[in-house]
Amino acid sequence: MTTEFLSQSQQGQTLGAIIPFAILSIIAVVLRLLAKSMIHLRYGVDDYLIILGLCCSLGCFSLSTIMVRLGSGLHLDVVPTANIPKYLKCMYAYQLIYTATILSVKLSILTYYVRIFQIRPFRIAVYAVGSLVVVWAITVWFISIFSCRPINGFWDTSVTSSCVSNKEFYVGNAVPNICTDVMILILPLRMVWALQTTRMQKVTLSGIFLLGGFVVVCSCIRLGTQFKVDDPDFTWAMNGTVIWTSLEVSFGVISACLPTMRPVVRWAMRKFNISTNDTSKSSQRCFTSSHASTRGFETLSGSGG
């Protein structure tokens, strides 16, 4: 191997990609809670779940930065041997915290759906998707914890151990995760398009919910990077997974908060003298009039606490 090859580094790129979105996820949750306070509503279960999701996502972010310090983004040949067990321990912990993050964020979104859409068939569909998410998380946790026998064989290469295939495990847990992402994205669309409002209003509301599509994109890119998990030069080959996993959870937190920020957006538009009177009043009338026709649709401002 040439000196030029061994001197390659993706570490700056990694930190430059994950730090801004970790900060944005914090801002998103703060704005979500601020929006509730502005309209004098109590925090709901969905709010507490997203706070938990944020804490877990910051745990993923912290592990990503630690893994960069230990050698992620560098070729394995230049990573100090003493760093390898520490790096693998971070990978082990990452699997558990990542799953907790995804579970918290998805349950927050589904709980929000249950609160704003009061239709029984829709709620049954939400509970069904939520059950799939919980089963997925429990399964991933179990396999993650006992992926090697003995458990410390995951990070201690001196121990004789039997481990599940990394590639099969990572791909196997990513595919159901993406499927439930898509289900959660499309769940509210039928409700939105049943509203008695203008096509533009329906498109706008659909767009708000579909912003979570960024999470699906991240999940799909992350899945592609995981096919390199068995590469011998894993600190270099797996760095893409480190980046996209951190981005996925940050985007998840952000997208879960976006539909709740209407009060903050309206305040900001008034603050900067941006006219919203026609659109806002029309929107409010649409929500109010559609409440009866959909038997329970509440405004995206979060009313109904």
From TrEMBL:
<keyword id="KW-0812">Transmembrane</keyword>
<feature type="transmembrane region" description="Helical">
    <location>
        <begin position="174"/>
        <end position="193"/>
    </location>
</feature>
<protein>
    <recommendedName>
        <fullName>Rhodopsin domain-containing protein</fullName>
    </recommendedName>
</protein>
<dbReference type="Pfam" id="PF20684">
    <property type="entry name" value="Fung_rhodopsin"/>
</dbReference>
<dbReference type="InterPro" id="IPR049326">
    <property type="entry name" value="Rhodopsin_dom_fungi"/>
</dbReference>
<feature type="transmembrane region" description="Helical">
    <location>
        <begin position="126"/>
        <end position="146"/>
    </location>
</feature>
<dbReference type="InterPro" id="IPR052337">
    <property type="entry name" value="SAT4-like"/>
</dbReference>
<keyword id="KW-0472">Membrane</keyword>
<feature type="transmembrane region" description="Helical">
    <location>
        <begin position="15"/>
        <end position="35"/>
    </location>
</feature>
<feature type="transmembrane region" description="Helical">
    <location>
        <begin position="47"/>
        <end position="72"/>
    </location>
</feature>
<feature type="transmembrane region" description="Helical">
    <location>
        <begin position="236"/>
        <end position="261"/>
    </location>
</feature>
<feature type="transmembrane region" description="Helical">
    <location>
        <begin position="205"/>
        <end position="224"/>
    </location>
</feature>
<keyword id="KW-1133">Transmembrane helix</keyword>
<dbReference type="GO" id="GO:0016020">
    <property type="term" value="C:membrane"/>
</dbReference>
<feature type="domain" description="Rhodopsin">
    <location>
        <begin position="31"/>
        <end position="266"/>
    </location>
</feature>
<comment type="similarity">
    <text>Belongs to the SAT4 family.</text>
</comment>
<feature type="transmembrane region" description="Helical">
    <location>
        <begin position="92"/>
        <end position="114"/>
    </location>
</feature>
